[in-house]
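Input record (one chain):
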Amino acid sequence: MLLCLACIVKDEEDMIAGLLTSVRGLVDEAVVVDTGSADNTVGVAEGLGARVIRSTWRGSFAEARNESLDQCRGDWIIFLDADERVTATGFKAVRRQLASAREDGFYVTLVNYADLAMTTPVEDIKVFRVFRRRPEYRFSGTIHEQVLPEVMARGKGIGLLPLTVAHLGYVPAVIRERNKQARNLAMCEEAYRAAFQSPLARLYALFNLAREYQNTGDFARGVELYGELLKNREIENEAYYPIAAYNICNCLAQLPGREETALSLADSCLSLLPDYPELWYLRGTFLSRLQRSDEALESFIKSLAQKTDNPRYISRMPRLREMTWVAVAGIKKQKQDVAGYLAALHKAWEENPTVANLNLLLEITRLLLSHEKPADIVHNYLATAPGIQTDLWLPVRQLFLVSRAYTGARDISGCFLKPRNRSVFQFLRSIDDNICIDGPVDLGVFLAKGQVMSDPLLSPVDRELAALLFLTGPPTELPWPALAVRADGGNEAGRAVMELAAYFSGEGPRDNVRTVKAIYTLMVKYRRLPNAWLTARLKDVLVGLGEAAVMVTENLKRIEALE
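The corresponding structure, as predicted from the sequence alone:
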């Protein structure tokens, strides 16, 4: 048996299933030590194949952990909690690495989330969770128990596994339900008052106490305790020293009015940790608040220059580089450096290049809309960033259209009439030349898509504009509910908008046959356009309608015939 899960639980019936399900395919056995649950935790765990050991709580997390170790039978142990989930794939590669490993233990990546849906990461850290099963490797500490010191002292080295674990224990609703913070704080206070075998053990207890005050939101008390801890030079070689340095700066960032103190402390920490990018970022934040923008910019650039995979720094900010580029953009905007502002926003976009990152798209769009000739800005930027990809400018251009900035949309298209972009932007430009006119155009009319385009009462300009938005994005990506509000139900075009809004938002009756017929009318009208790109878009939309299988099949055949 290669790998065994060791877990301790109490009253975790809502959480344990998520953990056990997430490790399927990774572990050969799951051992769950239940320390006295009053709910159905045991039943849920056993139902999912875990070997459950019924025990009692003796006031020490280390004792409970060691009991779970005694029950494991694998060559390796991974210890996780019920509120954690393994989210990475590639379990076969992890198991191969363990089977041939020379090390005696491994870090994994743990991401703390602020929501149960795991969409809002708060912190990204490296934690020690996997080690060889050997009798001398035992946990110590009543709370924030550790086994790492034993493995480091007696083992053959520590490595890093390509494994990511999501932690939900700091989700506010979960904390409130469990009263976890009050329990942990009381245990840390008691542990700090206890007798210690060595001065370093007392300092580690102080570190845990400071961290619990930080977790409760008492940042002032956290700063006080971290400050007392950092006065002791003997901890500078301890694994948790960078975490303490990062945490005290983070606490100070939450306390307005203490920027000078925070800056002095950040400088002191950076003298020992000069390649810690998070500390450079926080230093830049303090300087920005002090209106020292030139120095702040230098700190942000220093942060971007550091590697983000240094194993010594296990506390990380999610999306640090994106946030740092946004901070740089703020300084460039303050200095009225338009090109630098746009460049920094684009760098931030590259760190998280998804349409879902709407704030950056809106900020870029607002920047361009505020200038009479947005194409000049884009041209100037392209001259210094020739490798730019069109996936940034397509959504910006669409926002221009929604804002009725038609000339600007045409100008952006004109920036990209180069061989590498011609397949998309020259096609769009050919339409832009017809529809990008000054003056109002009824938004409801040109977004009505299929039915509007088959309406003989529409002017050629409106029809071309409707064609543009049909061809540049799937119907489900457009803001149909907002369009329905703007539509005039007193005319046929307005009613078509309302009908299509209900169709594509799933809130009304669907007539696939009529919609597909309207799409085919468009296909015939635009058969003179570049077929490869046009037909691919039409296929996507037709397949997306799906339910009208016969009609879709017929029209797909006709599309093939157009080619």
